[in-house]
Design brief:
This protein is of the alpha+beta class. It contains 13 helices and 20 strands. The protein has a seven-stranded mixed sheet with strand order 17-15-16-14-18-19-20, with helices on both faces. A six-stranded antiparallel sheet has the order 2-12-3-4-6-7. A hairpin with a 3-residue loop joins strand 9 and strand 10.
Length: 454
C-alpha cells in the first residue's frame, strides 16, 4: 500500500481509554478523521478550568465519557470552545452512545442551540452537562436541541469513571490502492459515448416510452442535486431547475417528475427522474412508507404535495383502475451522503429497510448513489480521478452495501454539481455511468415482466 499523506505521530503521554473499535467508528462517522487526546479528567481534574485550559481554541472536538455501567457516550461539536457566553449554532453536532455491541447516534434537531459556550464545563444543547459543578458526574435537564433518552444513552448512571476530549483533525492518512478497484475511462470520448448510449436508449417494453426512476434518501443527501447534475450535462451548462440545498428539513415537499431534454430545446430523453420528500428519522416527519408504496405503484400524480401526518389517498375514480406500466416506477435509486453513512440513525436505517422490503415485493431493481465523495475523502477532493484508487471510498461503498442490503456492484459513487459554474469531465463520466446503470437495471425489470405483459 502506498500512502497519499504522511502524518506525524503524536508524542502526547496521555493514554486514551477509548477502545480501538470505538475510535474507528467515531473517526468514520466524522469522515475518516484522526483524534488527538486533549483532556483526560482523571489526569487534569474534573473542573471547568482544567477543561477550558486544554480544550479552548482547538477547533472541532469529540467528548467521550465513561461510566461504571459500561456505557461510552458523549458528543461532537464542529465549533471550538471559546468561553464566549453565546448560544452556539452547530448543525453538525451530534451525540452518541456505545454499550456492548450496540451503538446509536442522535443528530441535533435544528443546530441553533447546539451548545452554550460559557466558562462552565462542556454541555450539549443546555441539556447534557459533563463534569457538572466540577464533579465527576453527567447532568441532564430539559431542552429540545437533542432528543435525549437518558436510559438508552447512559443507563441513567450519572457517575462518570472517566471523561476525555479529543481534537478532531481533518485530512487523515489516506491509503491508495495499487490498482483501481473499478476501471473508468476518464476521457471526452467516453463521456460522449455514454451520452450517445443514453440518448439512443429504448426501453424493452413497447408500452413504456420513458423509464421512471424514483430517488429516495435522507434530507440533504443530494436527490434534487442529482437531477440538476444530469440536466446540466445534457443542457450543456450547469443548471439548478430542481430546488436543492442543505436545510435541516426537506426542501422538496412535492412529488416531482423531472424529464430531461437533449439540449435546451431538444427532444425529451428516454427517462424521467422522480424526486421525493427526504426521509427523516422522526416519526411523523419526512416521506411516509405508505406514500412510497403509492409512488411505486404509479398512483401519485406529479406535483402532489406530501403530508407527513397523513399518507396519500388516491382519487376513488382513478384508483378503480390499475396504473399502467408507464406510470409505475421501474428503478429505485437510494441517494446516500458518503460523509454521513456511519452516523446514520437506527430509526432512519429502519425506514430504509422498510422501503427495501416494499420495493422487493414489487420486484423493482434498486441501486445506490453514494454522493459527496469529494467531501468524504481528501484524496478524491484533490483529484476526482483518484476515486477508484481510494481505499477509504472503497470501505464506504462496502459499508453502505452492508447497511442497505444491496450488492457492492450496485453502489455507485458520484459527485453532483453543487458549487461549480462550469461542467467538469470527471463529474460527467461518473454521473453518466450511474445513469447508464439505472437504465440497465430497468431493462432487467422489463425483461423479467415481459412474459406477463405479453
Amino acid at each position: 500500500m502506498q500512502k497519499a499523506k504522511v502524518r506525524k505521530v503524536s508524542t502526547d503521554p496521555l493514554t486514551s481509554k477509548l477502545p480501538k473499535e470505538r475510535k474507528e467508528q467515531l473517526c468514520a462517522s466524522l469522515g475518516n478523521v484522526d483524534l488527538t487526546l486533549l483532556y483526560k479528567a482523571s489526569v487534569h481534574g474534573y473542573t471547568a478550568s482544567a477543561f477550558h485550559q486544554r480544550c479552548d481554541r482547538q477547533g472541532p472536538t469529540v467528548l467521550v465519557a465513561y461510566n461504571s455501567s459500561g456505557y461510552i457516550f458523549g458528543g461532537y461539536t464542529s465549533v471550538e470552545y471559546a468561553q464566549s457566553g453565546q448560544q452556539i449554532t452547530d448543525g453538525e453536532a451530534f451525540l452518541f452512545s456505545f454499550q456492548g455491541g450496540a451503538c446509536s447516534y442522535i443528530k441535533v434537531n435544528s443546530g441553533q442551540y447546539a451548545r452554550y459556550d460559557d466558562a462552565k464545563g462542556p454541555c450539549f444543547g443546555q441539556q447534557l452537562y459533563f463534569c457538572y459543578n466540577n464533579q465527576s458526574v453527567v447532568y441532564h435537564q430539559g431542552g429540545n436541541a437533542f432528543n435525549i433518552n437518558t436510559s438508552s444513552m447512559y443507563g441513567n448512571d450519572t457517575q462518570l469513571s472517566e471523561c476525555e476530549v479529543y481534537k478532531v483533525e481533518q485530512e487523515p492518512e489516506v491509503s491508495v490502492e495499487e490498482k483501481p478497484w473499478r476501471n473508468v475511462l476518464w476521457t471526452t470520448e467516453r463521456r460522449d459515448e455514454l451520452m450517445g448510449l443514453i440518448k439512443n436508449y429504448k426501453p424493452l417494453m413497447k408500452s413504456v416510452s420513458r423509464v421512471r426512476m424514483l430517488m429516495i434518501g435522507p434530507v440533504g443527501a443530494g436527490k434534487s442535486s442529482f437531477f440538476n447534475s444530469i440536466n446540466s450535462i445534457f443542457t450543456g451548462h450547469v443548471t439548478n431547475k430542481a430546488m436543492s440545498g442543505s436545510a435541516g428539513t426537506s426542501l422538496t415537499v412535492q412529488f416531482r417528475t423531472y424529464p430531461v431534454n437533449d439540449g435546451r430545446e431538444g427532444k425529451p430523453l428516454p427517462f424521467v427522474l422522480c424526486d421525493t420528500m427526504g426521509l427523516e428519522e422522526q416519526s411523523g416527519a419526512g416521506l411516509d412508507i405508505d406514500d412510497i408504496s403509492s409512488i411505486l405503484q404509479g398512483h401519485v400524480p406529479d406535483r402532489y404535495k406530501f403530508n407527513p401526518m397523513a399518507p396519500f389517498q388516491p382519487d376513488e375514480k382513478k384508483s378503480s383502475r390499475p396504473a399502467s406500466l408507464q406510470e409505475k416506477i421501474h428503478c429505485v435509486v437510494y441517494v446516500i451522503d458518503a460523509t454521513k453513512i456511519s452516523i446514520m440513525s437506527s430509526k432512519l436505517e429502519e425506514k430504509l429497510a422498510a422501503t427495501r422490503r416494499k420495493v422487493n415485493t414489487l420486484g423493482i431493481p434498486q441501486i445506490v448513489l453514494l454522493t459527496k465523495v469529494d467531501e468524504a475523502c481528501p484524496l478524491v477532493e484533490e483529484d476526482l480521478q483518484s476515486l477508484y484508487v481510494s481505499s477509504y471510498i472503497k470501505t464506504k461503498v462496502q459499508e453502505v452495501s452492508s447497511r442497505l442490503g444491496v450488492p457492492v456492484s450496485c453502489v455507485l459513487p458520484v459527485k453532483n454539481y453543487s458549487q461549480e459554474l462550469e461542467l467538469d469531465l470527471n463529474c460527467d463520466v461518473l454521473l453518466l455511468t450511474a445513469l447508464q446503470q439505472m437504465l440497465r437495471l430497468a431493462d432487467d425489470y422489463f425483461d423479467d415482466i415481459r412474459p406477463v405483459e405479453g
